[in-house]
From TrEMBL:
This is Uncharacterized protein YcfJ. Keywords: Membrane, Signal. It is found in: Membrane. Residues 84-120 form the Glycine zipper 2TM domain. Residues 1-22 form the signal peptide. The lineage of its organism: Bacteria, Pseudomonadati, Pseudomonadota, Gammaproteobacteria, Steroidobacterales. Pfam families: Rick_17kDa_Anti (PF05433). One of its GO terms (cellular component) is outer membrane. The keyword Transferase does not apply. Its main location: membrane.
Length: 187
């Protein structure tokens, strides 16, 4: 039995030694050193400062106001046209009464022109020289405002006892993913 016991001890010792030799060394790509599997690791962020820039923003604003304008009667108004025509006819008849021959024609034309002017003025006075009305005017004006915008973050992190600073588009939080590259030392 002692021989069997010794053989059993030797067998157990050989299997433990074989298992230890078959295990990869701790510096290789083992499961307990997973962060180096894909060439990345995580480093704690020491500080993260926003990079702020002032930006001018033009804001359109519509401004309206009331304006008083004068309006005059239009010539196309029937009462103005009618009075002007009637004044021209009466003036032409009166002018025709003066002069003779060629002077008669000139007096008729002059009487018609003067009568038309008197008729037009009479129509304008009847309607009032001008009326005032309130018109709303509007205009778009641009107002400049300044806003602060975050363009990115200046991130300082620590890895293997050294501090590094980089610029990122976002705040990474408490830790940052870093690429780890290991190369053999030459010489």
């Amino acid at each position: 039995m002692a021989t069997v016991g010794r053989a059993l001890v030797i067998l157990v010792g050989l299997s433990v030694t074989t298992a230890a030799l078959a295990a990869p060394p701790p510096w290789s790509n083992s499961r307990h050193n997973r962060s180096y599997d894909d060439g990345y690791d995580y480093a704690p962020v020491v500080r993260s400062e926003p990079i702020v820039r002032q930006v001018r923003v033009e804001t359109p604003r519509r401004e309206c106001w009331d304006e008083t304008v004068e309006s005059r009667p239009h010539i196309s108004d029937p009462s103005v046209g009618g009075r002007t025509l009637l004044g021209g006819i009466i003036g032409g008849v009166i002018g025709h009464q003066f002069g003779s021959g060629r002077g008669n024609d000139a007096a008729t034309i002059a009487g018609a022109a003067i009568g038309a002017g008197v008729g037009y003025d009479s129509a304008r006075r009847a309607q009032g020289n001008s009326t005032q009305e309130v018109v709303q005017r509007c205009e778009v004006r641009y107002e400049d405002q300044y806003e602060e915008r975050i363009e990115g973050y200046r991130v300082t992190y620590e890895y293997n006892g050294r501090e590094y600073t980089t610029r990122m588009a976002y705040d990474p939080g408490a830790k940052i993913r870093v690429r780890v590259a290991v190369a053999p030392a030459e010489g």
